[in-house]
Amino acid sequence: MSTTAEVKPSLRFGQVVIGPPGSGKTTYCQGMREFLSTMGRKVVVVNMDPANEEMPYPCAVDVSELITLDEVMDSLKLGPNGGLLYCMQYLEANLDWLESKLKRHGDCYFLFDCPGQVELYTHQSSVKNIFSQLGKWNFRVRSVHIVDSHYCADPAKFISVLCTSLSTMLHVELPHVNVLSKMDLIEQYAFNLDFYTEVMDLTYLLDHLATDPFFKKFQRLNEKLAEVIQDYSLVSFVPLNVQVLLFNFHFSSCGKEFLFYISKG
Ligand SMILES: Nc1nc2c(ncn2[C@@H]2O[C@H](COP(=O)(O)OP(=O)(O)OP(=O)(O)O)[C@@H](O)[C@H]2O)c(=O)[nH]1
Q1: pLDDT for position 262
Q2: Which residue, by CA, sits nearest to atom 8 of ligand 1?
Q3: Predicted pLDDT at 102
Q4: How many whole angstroms separate alpha carbon 88 and alpha carbon 73?
Q5: Pfam families annotated for this entry (predicted)?
């Protein structure tokens, strides 16, 4: 029996780390945790991915205690994609569990390591509802959308990354930073790095695609996609090499603002 009146927790800050499978979300959480701890911040990492088995970081809250992907796939005879959607719907239906776990960690900076399934962030509503509930619990979180920089090596893939990033930003509805991970692995780009990070003028990309016999057939479609991305004028990227957790500030003002947000939070 509770004897004291429920006190609304003070503001808590953090990041929800989202992005496609294998883009480097868990590695980022680990790197960011170490980086912030070194700066003297109290950081906790929350594993929101029911498929994550071996986390490299100490896990303050682990959704696998509530539900695991393997259990769901076995008991409901679902594949990995359907299983993950079910898991997030289950978490949405059991938010009191999450709230009680988060309450144990007061004045900390929170990193939420989220699952890597694209439709969770572009179509399905459970994850978006969970993020919005965090706001009602007095969390102020920003989404950090991690994308593998390997996609910069191919203009056609880069167009699809731009579309996915834009629809994620519009769907998730949080202050948002797109991060190009694994920059240490990129040996050469078709264009200068700032072309990918600033996403200012996609004409070069279209010209490049027009020289490819396969993509030439889809020139009009590519033009329209580029038009949508440019008209919204929302997508840009911050390059990241997690090995040193070094944001290249001089490439993007977004990077400055991002670290400013962390230090304020
Ligand atoms: N070289 C290099 N490798 C990286 C970097 N970030 C992540 N990786 C590697 O990429 C692989 C996938 O990284 P994870 O952190 O597991 O990716 P994830 O997005 O959490 O994956 P899922 O949870 O399966 O969606 C691992 O082998 C990491 O070591 C990076 O900046 N540089």
Answers
A1: 44
A2: 24
A3: 92
A4: 13
A5: ATP_bind_1 (PF03029)
Q: How many CA atoms lie within 13 A of 42 on its CB side?
A: 6
Ligand 1 center–CA 55 separation, angstroms = 12
Q: How far is the CA of 213 from the centre of ligand 1 (A)?
A: 33
Yes or no: domain 12-202+235-264 corresponds to CATH 3.10.580.10 = no
Conformational region of residue 45, where left means phi above 0, alpha means psi within -120 to 50, and beta covers everything else? beta
pLDDT at 255 over 50: no
Domain assignments of the chain as residue spans, ordered by start: 12-202+235-264
pLDDT of residue 189: 61
Task: Give me the pLDDT at residue 216, please.
Answer: 81
Q: Is the CB of 197 under 6 A from ligand 1?
A: no
22 close to 148: Cβ distance less than 8 angstroms:
yes
Local confidence band at 134 (pLDDT 50, 70, 90 cut-offs): very high
Helix (H, G, I), strand (E, B) or coil at 142: strand
